[in-house]
Amino acid sequence: MKLTTRLGKKGLTIKQLLKTNHSFKGPISPWNGIPGSELYYGQSYDGTPSWRDFLQTGSEQPLEDLKNQGAAALLFLPIDGRMMIYIFGYGLGSLVEGKTEWDYGIKVVLNSINANGIRSLDSKTIDRRAKNKRIQLATQGTIGEFELDIVKDLVSQIAGVSVDTTFAKGLVGSESLMLTVDMEATSIVKKTKQIYNVYNEVKYKTTFNWIDFVSPVKDKTLIDELNAELQVALDNAIKANDSSNFLLSYPEIIEAMNIDHICYGGFGPEIESDYPDFEKFLVEYLAAGHTGLSHTFDQLSIDQYDGEDTYKKSYGFYRCLSTELEYKLNYYVLTNGNWFRLEKTYYDEVTKFFEALINNSTDFTGPTKVYVYGETAYLESFSQPDHEIMDQVFFMSGQKKIEFADIVSGSCEMIHVKGGGSGNQLGHMFNQGFVSASLMLNDINYRKEFKRAIKMSSISSKFKTKDFLPSEVTVVYRIIKSGKKPSLSFFAKIALYDAYKKIRGMGYNFRLDWLN
To answer: What superkingdom does the record give (predicted)?
Structure first.
């Protein structure tokens, strides 16, 4: 049979784990004679399907009564001062969000499989773009086959084959653990202890030690401090009508075909939106008369609906919110309702890189004063001998449009320009510069199109098509940003560091220009 379980956080009672408005019968306690156990069961939902009325309009014969029903049950078993929760049917929706261990299923899977035993992997970037992705293999493979960036990606689900088939045959781990087992109800106490022991093992550190590179914050005092900082930052963002430092996204991979629209709940008239978006939330929140943060996180929600305005699912606002904080010389990211800390040595490495870069007269120039703000205004006013604007000139690679550069020069410079300091905006520019440099090195057709796109022959002639040498070319990132000294958000520093290493690794010269 297939079992789905979650692990309650230490010290939480069943009452704290179970939603107060659940519709279950029970509890049956003790269940199967197990001290401290409780069973709740019933229908998680019961209603007429939205498509029945549509079909009825095309028929004179009355359709028989049709009902959607979801049978569900939750079985709570005590283990080591906490509760292991067995979930049956649609029971998950009756558990309170954020009260179970986020890495429970992942840790059990990683402690149970070989290095080459991964079948599928879901991940989410820990930057504010919060990109979700899923990669599945036809067979099993190593982590290197799943395109995981251990610096930026947080594993949200992993599936594999257990080494010990008596423990489980197949395993899928996220916040939940799903396992295929042969067992009777009388063996559930033994299986509970076995699962919990595997969760507490540290075998994963030998083969999958990267999982701790981004580690969850579990210290309640620190979490409270970070949430206090978050509330201040969010309040300031609302007052300034500034959406640049926050992102709203689904906390899990969803089936888009099942969702018609979402609404932001908890603060006023609910206006339909296509998908979670912090900028749209900010517009609606301000329009409702709130000039600062006027609600607790628990009062705000993102609610999904189908095409018949039938409620599908609600996500807590806090769980959908992503942002970053530098706090007490550490870097933290909020995503999926949890705070994560980047490994300290990497934080120090990135910080030292940026400080060294802006103090290197070869690789850095600035701050240079300019009298325009923003990329568009800068490029429109730009005029310099032996330079040419190439903004919005693209190379087509399949269905993708790739911008060569914003400016090129007769000194063989490929200059990429971005105004402002948003980590998302700058991350896009850093990646754009890397992609262009990589194609320039490896694709002769790209070099030919690049030369054809340059109107000034005095510049075009400096870039070689054949016998191309990256050491003759300088990739330049030009940032327009106010402030007395160069500063970037930590995620922007990570993105810059990553691009810098890749560009220098290909043999290019590199320079960062700072315009103030």
So the answer is: Bacteria
